[in-house]
Fold these 4 entries.
Entry 1:
Amino acid sequence: MNFSYHLPTKILFGFGSLQGLGEEVEGLGAKKALLVTDKVMEKTGIVTKVSARLDGLSYDIFDDVEPEPRLEVADGVAQKVRNAPYDLVLGVGGGSSLDMAKLAAGLATNEGEARRFVGSGLLRRKALPTIMLPTTAGTGAELTVTSMVTVEGHKRWINSPVLLPTVALVDPELSVTMPQSVTAATGLDALCHNTEAYLSAAANVITDSAALEGVRLIVENLEKAFTNGSDRPAREAMSLGALLGGIALAARMVYGHSVGYTVATRFNLPHGVSCGIPLPYIISNYALACASKMKRLAEAYGVDGGEDPVALGVAIGEKVRRLVSKLRVPTTLKELGVKESDLSTLADECIKLYHRPNSPVVFDEKSMAHFYRMMWNGELAPGRE
Ligand SMILES: [Fe+2]
């Protein structure tokens, strides 16, 4: 039962919470801010909406964030933030913009190229204060120690406690105009965060409580938000589900995200799509190793499937696969376009590059190759060993 949980981030949640931005800026005593975002956010008018709430604070904009940002983008934002006396960084957008904003705040006080800090705990000096304003309901980046970067075609992470944002301001209003495909991808990402964190061996009572409620909210509302983007209660529930996923992320991800990384860059997939495809198979294959947890997970997923953990895992997996299909996302690796001859290469890469010491299922090369084949064929039943 022993655990530790550290979350110094102040959370402001709800429709209209953007109105509180000026007060947060004032509370931090900021004089000059750097607002990190992408060009889409400028076009949709969200940047104008946010800057109107800065109450006259002097600010500059860095809008060169790209999806799945490369190291070059991280170095670009570092150069920008080091060139003027900024004392606050704002992140506005999806996970990529928030990750680059966090990294800008860290690189402002830690000298050197972004490449030097790839890994865990290498950013050591305290970062600039940050305020994160997510415009999607998915990544949970507003509450994590991680910034993802793409290095030579592979996804890598820069992890450091100094990257934890100062304020997470989650106003579902900012997510209402999200296009359907982004709603699907980011919603699946949030479902993966809650589910994988719950299945992680590093889970604790706080991450489990957040994860189960996050799953429930997302399962009940993702399709509604996808079908009708202006369904405000569904948008609010999705924002909350994603926020809870951010809290749960402290338990770290298992191999669903790893599989996602192996296909994301090859097929140019949004992050949430790449980890949504393996999710049904992760649940059914972890059922035995997480036997005592499956009943509560099934309840959160709204699945009534008896007591047998493996049967529950398969039943939840089937429900997730139906949801994935309704969101117009492929449900197998074959449907995605993975070649059968590439399965063992992907499986090797998954273990070597994206190893998960906190996974209760331990994969070796053979069992990972078998798992990839199951995801390729669309087989949920793991079989008993
Ligand atoms: Fe994710």
Entry 2:
Amino acid sequence: MSLIFADSFDHYDTSQITRKYASKYGTTTVISAASGRRGTAGLTGSTNPGYFGVTRGIPSLATSIAGVAIKTNALPATNKAPLFVWFDGSSFFSVGALITSSGAISIERNYSPNVVLGSTAGNLIKVGIWHYIEVLATIHDTTGQVIVRADGIEVLNLQNVDTRATGAGPTATAIQLGHGAKESSTQWSAVFDDFYICDTSGSRNNTFLGDIKVDCRLPVAAGSYAQWTPFGGAGANWEHVKDAVPNDDTDYVWSDAPGARDAYKYTSGPGRILAVQPVSCVRKDDAGARTMAHIAEIAGADYTGVNLGSTDSYSFLSSVWDANPASSQEWTPADVTAGSFGPKVIA
Ligand SMILES: [Ca+2]
Ligand SMILES: [Ca+2]
């Protein structure tokens, strides 16, 4: 599987957070323009100090890795603020990485009563400074492990520890970033950006990715296909779906014809590209199942991603190519700009 999910927080607004995440903490979790890295948007709290966070479902995994850029504006005054928490399907808090009032990262099993498994030194997280924190967690009663990296440096390595809370399953099925409903009374102030989740399978993106950026790119021109039907407004298909924030029913493309494809051109930044993750904001408007997939059109050949189900409400559907599917080699910027990407109706 390798890369499972990445988020720039740059292509949607606060009202659309739960189109991508299983849940968010209350009404205080917001997308904030220009508060992230490189002048882009980030995820933060609307009250400072306050509570904020999101939970993303993942495939059932014993071992997974999460990474995020974080800038604190104030460390938690008391108690500890959750950075990452691994949950099982019953929402048991199995193991978490929490930020302390001294700027350490504390690794703990269960939330209440919590069991501290280990901690980094204090002053690791410095107020007002962007850090990139990555945590690998293996869920197990006896051979669990947790490895923490800060700014590319390993700062904690716990082996053969109990990372599975009593009553919790043997895997994690969700990762929480920041606060969730299971914690309380720990207010702090921070911003998250460039969030990723991967596992340890496959030949790429199967270990710590390092201090990455998640670079949001919107369609800039027509690609190889325009078989869906544009609705609302003027212009070509790609112009209906290039919104910086999805404008939903205002203008869009649609199709109910299995096999119908749309594909758009994108720009690329320079440098290494660890993965390409197409994201579409999708809903269906009639009863019955409707599935789609993302296609990459490369040199006239189509490569089709996993099937994605749609619902009557808008949701962000994403898939991942860890490598260029035409060459099985790492993506290059030229691969991205020469190809075109978009949705295909499967059934
Ligand atoms: Ca961002
Ligand atoms: Ca639109």
Entry 3:
Amino acid sequence: MPFGNAYFIIGNAYAGKSTLARLLAEKHGGILCGENWHDSYPEPLDAEAFPGLCYTRDLKDWHEFIRRTPEAYKAWVDETARECEILELRMLPELCAQGRPVFVDTNISVETLKTIAAPGHVLIMLADPDVSVRRFFERPDAEKQFLYRLLLEEPDPAAAMENYRKGLMLINSQENFDRLLSAGFPVLLRDETRTAEETLALAERIFGLEDCIRLRPHHGMCFRFYEGKGYSAEFTDHMGGVIRALSERPDTQVRLTCSADSVCEHCPNNVGGTCQSADKVMRYDAAVLDACGFKDGDEPAYADFAARVKERILDAGLRRGICGDCEWDAICAKHRREP
Ligand code: SF4
């Protein structure tokens, strides 16, 4: 998974995507890719390849922008979203390689996200389509307020506003809302009674970023026979600390996750949130979940998880069949007789 440490937020207008991405980045020491972050793409764009983005780049009179028909506006928004996706996918690898979580306020398509995002790393935020249109300009950001001023400068501001709203209605249609709602990713609906902090907490839960310990299922086996060896001094110090903390507090809730976890955080094989042996460790994780009767995202107490690993894998003699090709196999093998 090339973007294992990227968290994607998509949705319609006025749903709160920008605010949430900013809060997540602030709280989790992450990189913020806020609204229109593709503007920082370092190379000049070719007008033939990127007609949507170059339309605004080369625009002489912004009144033209708001005078387009609703259909032309919608077509431009669709085209621009497609072009932004191309640029964002070019820019993301370098950001992800920094190793910090990357929070992306984006219009990358659902279809693309299904192929590039790590499990549990996409959130859809939706406002009622009527609210998306009606309250579009009730935001302080400079771009919206600039457009609003342009509309007021038109010879017939009411007609100009009505024309613009029709374009917004096409973009924020009920059809688009329904499509996103049923896309198969977690959805947060805008709720005026919810505070920003409460929305942040919900998103953290969806993204698995709460303060609980994230654990790759196969690390339940590694923990059993760990004897202080590992990929680097930093890694072993940290892994030892995680094992100690869980041993002292076995009632701690852990989130089972088939992606980078609390142990991987300090591993040199963790490059941009993705394990360099991703295929192999994902196979181990899936086998442990299967044998123990858990699924990705479950949150058992550590004691319950460790007990199942012991009973259903180690005592049952299944360990070698799951991770016998691991480079550390000899350490675990000497602890018990295995088939
Ligand atoms: S080798 Fe991979 S799975 Fe194991 S701790 Fe390192 S990054 Fe995580």
Entry 4:
Amino acid sequence: MSSPTDAHVPVINYDAGGYDYRSFWQGRDYEQWAEARVIRRTLRRTAPVQWMVDLGGGFGRNVPHELQRAQHVVLVDYSWTNLTNAENTLLADPRNAGRVFLIRGNIYHLPFRDAAFEMGATIRVLHHLAATQDALQEMGRVIGEHWLLDVPIKHHLLARMKAVVKGGGQKLRSREANELGTKDEPFWNYHLGAIRDTVRQQGWNDVLVASVANFRRWERAVPRPLRAPVRPLVYGVERVAQPMGRGWWGPAQFLWLTKRQPQQFAAPAASPSSTPPAPWDALASRMWCPACHADLAWTDEVATCSGCGKIFNRKGMIWDFVTE
Ligand SMILES: C[S@@+](CC[C@H](N)C(=O)[O-])C[C@H]1O[C@@H](n2cnc3c(N)ncnc32)[C@H](O)[C@@H]1O
Ligand SMILES: [Zn+2]
């Protein structure tokens, strides 16, 4: 059995040109606050869980919120820079030892068994996933019950206002994804209804929980001397807009998905032929080869696939499960 997606769907390279995604977040306190508010409130919809996965988790910006609700958080990302930053910050905190795990992986071919996690989150990632349906299928495969999915929509208020002036309203209404960015770094915005239909067809019930960061980059539109007095107003209206603007206002719409037939993780009958040392021994039984889905044989430094023979290495506290 293999993942449905062709192995060669391009993956965005966040490490190109020495880029450090942390710089994106400088001066974005409002967006950070708006998102954190929704994540914390939404994850409280369910009882605390043992295992959670943050898919495309970057440098672990949201992991502190996730640790409020999960005993173990596995951060999966393709970018070495982001993972190394996560290692240097999250894992430098001794309270996170044995609770935070860092995996370099590709969302299209995850190294986890079915329903390995009770809960998952995918935040600010979907716009990068060209083979959207396959990516949703593969992410949903590894989550047993609950999933917080951030959908970047194309028909948000600002886009529709721009379309009134510049035209292009029809494009915003269609169900096709809108391709933006450059040829080398394309990204996509979606029709919310199309994504909701896809996840429903893939076995999820969905609730639209919030419209998030409804005033993205508001500081740019307000002269510097007015920003301090306007700030409380923006934060106040954001609180109201999060529920009120669902489906139409903000560019990021958060879905809370629950599997129609929740799955509990079942450890394999024949457990892996060996286990790595702590802390990874806790995670190892939930993993398999991302290429062929066979068991892995672990040592301190490598995991070897018993099916295709691929070898996966550990670098510091990061295991590399990207197959190239
Ligand atoms: C905009 S960042 C968001 C990071 C994090 N979720 C956050 O909200 O701070 C997008 C992340 O998705 C990761 N990513 C994109 N495509 C991926 C893929 N196919 N597999 C794994 N990670 C991917 C990138 O490396 C990057 O860290
Ligand atoms: Zn294999």
